[in-house]
Amino acid sequence: MTLIKETDFGTPQSTAEKTVTITVDGFDVSVPEGTSVMRASMEAGIQVPKLCATDMVDAFGSCRLCLVEIEGRRGTPASCTTLVEEGMQVRTQTDRLKGLRRGVMELYISDHPLDCLTCAANGDCELQDMAGAVGLRDVRYGADAQNHFKMRDGGGEVNACWKPKDESNPYFTYDPAKCIVCSRCVRACEEVQGTFALTITGRGFDSRVTAGMSESFLDSECVSCGACVQACPTGTLQEKSVIDIGQPERSVVTTCAYCGVGCSFKAEMRGDELVRMVPYKDGKANRGHSCVKGRFAYGYAAHQDRILNPMVRESVDLPWREVSWDEALSFAANKMKGIQQQYGKESVGVITSSRCTNEETYLVQKLTRAVFENNNTDTCARVCHSPTGYGLGQTFGTSAGTQDFDSVEHSDVVLVIGANPTDGHPVFGSRLKKRLRQGAKLIVIDPRRTDLVKSPHIKASHHLALRPGTNVAIVTAMAHVIVTEGLFDEAFIRERCDMDEFQDYVEFVSNPTNSPEAAELLTGVPAEEVRGAARLYARGGNGAIYYGLGVTEHSQGSTTVIGIANLAMLTGNIGKKGVGVNPLRGQNNVQGSCDMGSFPHELPGYRHVKNADARDIYEQIWGVTISDEPGLRIPNMLDAAVEGTFKGIYVQGEDILQSDPDTKHVAAGLAAMECVIVHDLFLNETANYAHVFLPGSTFLEKDGTFTNAERRINRVRKVMAPRNGYADWEVTQLLANAMGAKWNYTHPSQIMEEIAATTPSFANVTYDLLEEQGSVQWPCNDEMPEGTPTMHLDGFVRGKGRFIRTDYVATDEKTGPRFPLLLTTGRILSQYNVGAQTRRTDNVVWHEEDVLEIHPHDAEVRGIKDGDWLKLMSRSGETSLRANVTDRVSTGVVYTTFHHPATQANVVTTDYSDWATNCPEYKVTAVQVSLSNGQTDWQEEYQEHAARSRRIEAAE
């Protein structure tokens, strides 16, 4: 294995269809119109020296190193800013050019420290490379002259031009002494990330890169995405891991294990030590960009809290006892078999993980169906996006988003509802912001003012700050405007949709009770604002809808998804680039977890367990009889446990005690079980009630695949050996065999072969195809052998698109005198899900605790000031956390995150759920807020219990 070095073409690729042919140093090359001479030369295999140019940002033309000669033109134009023309004759190597380039390089080097041998960028420095490329052999300008890299001048006086290194960011350093002011970092922050945190201050010799308003990187608006570090051609911006470990020697392309964007990374290694994660330019989901989590927050894999040996205990009151793998697996298998013998086959079940691979998830659901012989399987994917599966399945016929992420580049209007891409899906958020800066319009439907509503060079045309729980009313009101004002696409509807159902929907939605004026009483959004948003979406060109958990995690989550699908069909925004309905999945493999049959009523490929033909496929391969009765969902498992009929569970890679609603009910259910098996990296909150702990492996230690939010199947490749001894799929296989199964998989590719043989949408997926294509989007079958970037091109999967009525039904969770405020929840950029991974990295510097956002008016009437301890109370429970007084939230609404177990925000959420899927209603909880003097008694008791539950006997 070697270090993967991607070609840098210097300027971005042109998307023009017309081609132009030029001659470079005697070689003809044909490129799209609008291509730079620099890129055309690189396409011909001729590298023009450069420093300020890189193909991730637009041409700038400041370094004057990429000069060329063009026949018929005067002077020596910069090849990065000069576009090709038909018949152009270009020369890149003449005596004149050589002399000019050496002179330019000489000036750069004269104000640069010559500490190359001890510089962390030694071996990975473009300045060093270009000095060699232009043949620089001497620097005539002495370092005793004015410079930026010496702390003191020749007379021993402090050099006013020198600035100290900024080491405030936990992941990278900024050394102004090595900066050549090429502006690549500034342009990457603007053009790729869209944060505008960096600028060039001063003029001429006094020019320098500055973060924020001359702040440190940590104190500035910098979001630590790493784009500036990646763009830097010198050692000015450098990863601290490279400084500590040295330059990497090999790299492996793999897929990030955080959010549902599914970014591709090069894991760069030195021996078996991970040096850094670098975004892979050929990754089709991220196109070479990254966020702080994927780029830097991988340290949890080697954190001291990680458990590497199996552990067991007879009772949760006892300390853990480290044992061998054989003993742990025998203990677990005997417990589960004993439970089934005493209480029946239905008394045990599994919970699959949305963080594990497709292959691992497939085996866990196979474990319960083929070994436990029941359908008691559920997943956190149901707890977040099951309404997506139901709503899109009912309307379009398939349970997934319609587009790839590239599609947003063709959108004219983007409607974001119940999602916060800049925090939850930041790489896609950056791509969206870039499109908005290019002129696309934005509609945001969210009770909170997210960064998309207004941030540098971005402003939403409409922000519908609705009351939590009223999504259905607002979406239906928009449809009312489109129908009653004749803004719908009649030709599309007649060709692609069921007309009888459309006529019924028109009758329903035209009713004045669904008008924006009527909805205003429910949502609090001015009717004219809703009308304006509806008209913009219907008339604005290609309209794309992106939504998240703020849509699905409601009692009417499925209804809202149906309403969103209705909007897309009404306006013909389906089946082409730049449009569609796109759920933003919360975790890296939520889509795959659903695809692999993690639901108690569905086999892989979304086929109901009552479907005899689907069951027969698996019965033939597995040699078992599969029950035709749907199994238990997580809430049903917990209810049954409290009742005494459900006694054992295997939980892979999920922490239901922290992530699921109504924490006290979850704890009661787990406490009532006789065998809880937790398979994870750390002793998480669920492990407080576990009897068996099986150590898990990180994404760096396994092979497999993830499926991201755009249905893209991406390879996960093993970078290092599992520190716990086994990949997660191997652990599940060992447990199954301890239970009496005879599984004999030797590599995840064999599991994928079984998936492809049994799941129609994966029929042509193989590891060889993924190696060849990089990734594919399902369905991937004989009809679409290389995958399907855009769904429903010529017709819907179900045949005709189906319009469905969307009656608004108010949630049962009501505000009142005791609980006058509405709590809604979400995520923050630096943290991920329950924080088990990100809390064990330096990301905690940005978010060390969960806080409660409260509007200044609501704070004032309660005597609350910023930073005060607050008690947050609901009908379910209470917790304490600090106040963040902000107008991001509306009056009557409070907001918090759930990343820290010390807060346990879900102790206040209720057990209300979506009517169709039981997806919990996390986003609407009636609460009261009052001043507090610290943590509640319940929090203190919980933490004491957790500490007792994590005791481990000392090894003999």
Percentage of residues assigned to helices: 25-40%
Walk across the major sheet and give the strand order.
13-12-27-26-25-14-15
Given the structure, what is the number of helices? 29
Tally of DSSP β-strands: 36
**Cα-atom radius of gyration:** 29 Å
What does the largest sheet look like? Answer: 7 strands, mixed
**Global outline:** globular
Low-confidence stretches: none
Distance between the termini: 41 Å
β-sheet strand percentage = 15-25%
- The structural class is alpha/beta
Mean pLDDT: 94
Give descriptors for this structure:
single chain; 956 residues; alpha/beta; 7-stranded mixed sheet; 6-stranded mixed β-barrel; 36 strands; 29% helix; globular
Fold blueprint:
Elements: E1 19-24, E2 27-32, H1 37-43, E3 69-70, E4 89-91, H2 95-110, H3 126-133, E5 172-174, H4 184-193, E6 198-201, E7 208-211, H5 227-231, E8 237-239, H6 240-245, E9 250-255, E10 264-270, E11 273-279, H7 292-296, E12 311-312, E13 321-322, H8 325-343, E14 348-352, H9 358-371, E15 377-379, H10 380-395, E16 413-417, H11 421-424, H12 426-437, E17 441-445, E18 454-455, E19 458-459, E20 462-464, H13 471-484, H14 490-496, H15 499-509, H16 516-523, H17 527-539, E21 543-547, H18 549-552, H19 557-571, E22 581-583, H20 590-595, E23 602-603, E24 607-608, H21 612-622, H22 634-643, E25 648-652, H23 656-659, H24 663-671, E26 675-680, E27 692-695, E28 704-707, E29 712-716, H25 728-738, H26 748-758, H27 767-773, E30 775-777, E31 821-826, E32 851-854, H28 856-861, E33 869-873, E34 878-885, E35 893-897, E36 925-931, H29 937-949
Parallel strand pairs: 1-4, 14-15, 14-25, 16-17, 16-21, 17-20, 21-22, 25-26, 26-27, 31-35, 32-34
Antiparallel strand pairs: 1-2, 3-4, 5-8, 6-7, 9-10, 10-11, 12-13, 12-27, 18-19, 23-24, 28-29, 29-30, 31-36, 32-35, 33-34, 33-36
Helix pairs in contact: 8-25, 9-25, 9-26, 10-19, 13-16, 13-17, 13-19, 16-17, 22-24
